[in-house]
Every structure is written in structure tokens, then in C-alpha cells.
Design goal:
The chain is flat and about 60 Å long. It is mainly β. The strands form three sheets. It has a seven-stranded antiparallel beta sheet. It has a six-stranded antiparallel beta sheet with strand order 4-5-3-2-1-6, with no helix packed on it. Strands 14, 15, 16, 17, 18 and 19 form a six-stranded antiparallel beta sheet that branches. The two termini are about 30 Å apart. It contains one helix and 19 strands.
């Protein structure tokens, strides 16, 4: 499951915050030691204030109003991963089998209801939602959702116009910190109470070396890691979940 399975967008504040534009955040990562280290690549209509700005198409010229690319500080980006929102009429919802609730959506498992948010991710990097499969009157607790696919949260709720469906990507990274452990859970049986708490730390594998994770800013889609004696930001869109190693120690 990688963030790059989903197109990533954010609002870029350029020229001291005087110019705000919606841009696509690309998954390019600058090489270590380059002037662009710690920056993220974006593509949009003339992202004013971006470093090393150039036309999106190498054969085209840099023209105002035409998509171009450039490197920006992640701190100048906000409103990452704006959720999709649609409202369907009640007759249409009834015909499509859409009912209120919270769901997890993946390509392999399809859309399944969630039986409680135990954590955004388990310490080993697996999505920790308890997925419910089967009919509404006799649901079966399913195994955890797959780790190699993009997973989205789908919230369905009733509004005056019908049913509101809000879809948002799930962050595939776990914030270092203390979490409840569910070691007694058994797939196919109802969720059991927490078995204790664990302290989770994380490292990122980059260029053949492991770098400790200081913190993760989900709103800014930025991972702060220790590299060469300092803490530097890297874009989460440039790091696959398979490159993050988690260690859980009982508290």
C-alpha cells in the first residue's frame, strides 16, 4: 500500500502566502546532498515561489497558466489529500445498496464495514481496522486488510439531500508513540479487549541506511527523520510503507 497509488494534491502558499494554488504533489525525491533535499516536487499552473521551476513538458516553454513543476518547502503546503464528497439521493442509495456507516475500501477486498478503529495501523505496518464481511444481520469479522494496496476510509451519513459519501485516503504510516495492543485478537472472532500497551518506534530505509523517525506530520504529509546529525523533512509520497520498519516494546 503506497500513497503514490492515489494522486496527491495540496494547496501551495507562494509569495509569502499572498498566492495560493492547488498543485499536484509528485513522488520524486531529490538525491541526498542536493540543493533540493528536504523539498517536495509539485506540478500546477505556474507555482509561483517554487524553486527550480520549469515547464511540465520538456518540449514546452514556461508560460503563466500552463502546468509547470518546481520544488517547494512542505511547510508551504496545506490541505493535503482533500477528501472526495458526493451526495446521492435516497432512491439512488437504496438501489445501489448504500447505507450509513464507516467502511474501508481496497481494490482486493472491496468495500467492507469497519468494526471499530483500533489504530490507524498496527505496529507491523498492517491496517488495523477490523473489517466486517457478510450480510448485515450476520456479519463475520474478516482478516486485516491487505498491506500492498491503497486503502481508503469511506464515511456514509444521512443529510437533508440524501446520503453523503466522504472518501479519504488512509495514511500508510504509523506515528511513533504509545498504542494499545490487541495481541489476543483472533481473525473470525469478535474483537477482544486490549491486551496492554506498546511503545512504537520507527526507522526509514533510505539509500541503504536506516534513519530514525522523529515524528510524522499527517496533515503536511511529511516525515521528519534523523539524517547526518540533524532532523530533516521528507515527503511521505516519496517513501513506500515497505521502507518503514517498526519496533514495538511492551510498556
Amino acid at each position: 500500500m503506497t500513497i503514490t497509488d492515489l494522486r496527491t494534491f495540496a494547496t501551495f502558499d507562494g509569495h509569502g502566502g499572498k498566492v495560493s494554488k492547488r498543485v499536484e504533489v509528485l513522488d520524486h525525491e531529490p538525491p541526498a546532498g542536493s540543493p533540493h533535499e528536504g523539498l517536495v516536487a509539485v506540478r500546477g499552473e505556474h507555482p509561483l515561489g517554487a524553486l527550480d521551476e520549469r515547464a511540465a513538458d520538456d518540449s514546452a516553454a514556461l508560460t503563466r497558466g500552463v502546468p509547470s513543476v518546481g520544488w517547494v518547502d512542505p511547510a508551504t503546503l496545506r490541505d493535503w489529500y482533500r477528501p472526495d464528497r458526493v451526495v446521492v439521493s435516497r432512491p439512488e442509495a437504496r438501489q445501489s445498496g448504500i447505507t450509513p456507516g464507516l467502511y474501508a475500501d481496497s481494490r482486493g477486498r472491496g468495500r467492507v464495514r469497519i468494526d471499530g478503529l483500533e489504530a490507524r495501523l498496527a505496529p507491523d505496518g498492517r491496517p488495523a481496522f477490523r473489517a466486517l464481511a457478510g450480510p448485515d444481520d450476520a456479519p463475520v469479522v474478516d482478516v486485516p486488510l491487505p498491506t500492498d494496496q491503497a486503502v481508503r476510509l469511506v464515511a456514509v451519513s444521512e443529510v437533508d439531500e440524501g446520503l453523503e459519501v466522504v472518501t479519504a485516503p488512509v495514511s500508510p504510516f504509523l506515528q511513533p508513540g504509545e498504542y494499545a495492543a490487541y495481541d489476543d485478537d483472533v481473525p473470525g472472532l469478535p474483537p477482544r479487549p486490549a491486551s496492554g500497551r506498546v511503545a512504537v518506534s520507527a526507522t526509514v530505509l533510505l539509500d541503504g541506511a536506516l534513519h530514525p523517525v522523529e515524528r510524522i506530520d499527517e496533515r503536511a504529509a511529511t516525515i521528519w527523520i534523523h539524517r547526518q546529525g540533524s532532523v530533516v523533512p521528507i515527503a511521505t509520497s516519496a517513501v513506500g510503507p515497505d521502507l518503514v520498519r517498526y519496533t514495538a516494546v511492551p510498556v
